[in-house]
């Protein structure tokens, strides 16, 4: 029968596993404490002057091209630090520019209102964006100039749920810079061969995958599709038929007595997911229910665990993008052809299954994988930033109280979906990205909020901050800085205990 269904925000209580993680006598925090982090406004101001910093140079490519190679640690550290330092310098320049721009604010506000009325391209159904042509160099230069004019304004338009102009690799059809067009061409050349070099594809993907080729690239990097191009069509056909064979065999059993609790919990959890405008579409809800129930039936050692439901969304959204041009949150999924929807559903199921195969001990009874990772995070942060570590100890904040969700949901509740998709580009390119490298990303993510953490002087304030970190306006550049720092930490702490790598 299907086994335990746990909470997504807190682990199941097991005295033996918790003995070394939770101090006796500590009171658990209230997870329903209302309120927003105190520094959200300050961060929004910071974000507004650092957007699109990563379009200036190729420093991220220098770092990320080295990701799969064994390198001298001094070289790695120097390059990673260079990425972060470059970002900081650009931030300072933008702050100075903003001060100058304030003199002309009324005039530029008018210009901005005009920029928000830029015409959108006609929405239409396409076979695949991997076959879409790239604009001519003259067109791209003109589009880039228009984009730069818009980005120079002191105030930004509202950022869409899935993407903004700066995040062209995630959603929408914004202007493409020459550099982005060059990277897209490199991907297409690599994917066009009879046998894709997966190692080269990983190196290229580490710094982000263009939206147009993300579906095929994710399928290759996850191991769902073979490197041999001639075998891909038959593999897709076979795996899609196999999945719908599971539907015919098992899905009617969702109403059986020993499966009712599992299906009921899935049915309750899906409407709580984001983006709401997507998952609340009846067709999408049905697809997610089938994917999660079939996965639970086929993995009785864990069954369905809250948190697994979130892991479907990035795959589903990316594979929908293969067939549409508009932003997914405003798209009626039911308007797609039935065969297309079946393909998206099956592909999402298999790729989610591939991901979970590598972290299944996160979801078995008592979730020992997560508890080990939380303990490893605590030890890692104590070495990276002892001041932050001791500050949380002083106010009796246990890592398990906030980082359990970071591990259980792979930071999906902490980051916008556009950032999760960009993060997963690197996770799929990095060896053991979802298990081992995620630990260093979580450590870098925690230390990223060092100033805000140290300004909080009580348990409640710290918990409100850590459970509501102000990342709403994050985009590709913030994720790239986070990944660069995580990559630096990975090499700096190469001598870490073995349990860091489990």
UniProtKB/TrEMBL annotation:
GO terms for molecular function: 14-3-3 protein binding; GTPase activator activity. PROSITE patterns: TBC_RABGAP (PS50086). Signal peptide: none annotated. Keywords: GTPase activation, Phosphoprotein. InterPro entries: Rab-GAP-TBC_dom, Rab-GAP_TBC_sf. May act as a GTPase-activating protein for Rab family protein(s). This is Rab-GAP TBC domain-containing protein. It comes from Pygocentrus nattereri.
């Amino acid at each position: 029968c299907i086994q335990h269904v746990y909470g997504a925000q807190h682990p199941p209580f097991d005295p033996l596993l918790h003995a070394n993680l939770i101090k006796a006598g500590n009171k658990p925090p209230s997870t329903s404490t209302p309120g927003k982090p105190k520094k959200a406004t300050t961060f929004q101001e910071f974000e507004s002057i650092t957007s699109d910093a990563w379009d200036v140079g190729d420093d991220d490519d220098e770092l990320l091209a080295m990701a799969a190679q064994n390198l001298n640690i001094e070289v790695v550290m120097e390059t990673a630090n260079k990425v972060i330092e470059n970002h900081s310098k650009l931030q300072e320049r933008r702050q100075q520019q903003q001060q100058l721009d304030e003199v002309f604010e009324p005039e530029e506000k008018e210009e901005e209102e005009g920029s928000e009325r830029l015409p959108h391209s006609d929405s239409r159904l396409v076979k695949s964006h991997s076959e879409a042509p790239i604009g001519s160099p003259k067109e791209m230069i003109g589009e880039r100039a228009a984009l730069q004019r818009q980005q120079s304004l002191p105030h930004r338009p509202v950022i869409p749920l899935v993407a903004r102009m700066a995040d062209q690799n995630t959603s929408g059809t914004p202007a493409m810079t020459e550099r982005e067009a060059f990277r897209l061409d490199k991907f297409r050349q690599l994917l066009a061969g009879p046998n894709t070099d997966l190692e080269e594809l990983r190196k290229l993907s580490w710094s982000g995958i263009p939206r147009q080729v993300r579906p095929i690239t994710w399928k290759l990097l996850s191991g769902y599709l073979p490197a041999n191009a001639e075998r891909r069509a038959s593999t897709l056909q076979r795996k899609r038929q196999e999945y719908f064979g599971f539907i015919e065999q098992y899905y009617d059993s969702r109403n059986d007595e020993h499966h009712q609790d599992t299906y009921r919990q899935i049915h309750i959890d899906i409407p709580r997911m984001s983006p709401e405008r997507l998952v609340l579409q009846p067709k999408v809800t049905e697809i997610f229910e089938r994917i999660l129930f079939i996965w639970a039936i086929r993995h009785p050692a864990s069954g369905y665990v809250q948190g697994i439901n979130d892991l479907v969304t990035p795959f589903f959204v990316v594979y929908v993008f293969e067939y549409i041009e508009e932003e997914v949150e405003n798209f009626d999924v039911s308007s797609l052809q039935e065969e297309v929807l079946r393909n998206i559903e099956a592909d999402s199921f298999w790729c989610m299954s591939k991901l979970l195969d590598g972290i299944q001990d996160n979801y078995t009874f008592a979730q020992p994988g997560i508890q080990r990772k939380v303990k490893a995070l605590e030890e890692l942060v104590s070495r990276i930033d002892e001041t932050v570590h001791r500050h949380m100890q002083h106010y009796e904040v246990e890592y398990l109280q906030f980082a359990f969700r970071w591990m259980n949901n792979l930071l999906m509740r902490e980051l916008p979906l556009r950032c999760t998709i960009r993060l997963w580009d690197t996770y799929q390119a990095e060896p053991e990205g979802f298990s081992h490298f995620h630990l260093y990303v979580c450590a870098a993510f925690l230390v990223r909020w060092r100033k805000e953490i140290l300004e909080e002087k009580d348990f409640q304030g710290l918990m409100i901050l850590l459970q509501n970190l102000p990342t709403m306006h994050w985009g590709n550049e913030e994720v790239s800085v986070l990944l660069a720092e995580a990559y630096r930490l990975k090499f700096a702490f190469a001598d870490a205990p073995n349990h860091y790598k489990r």
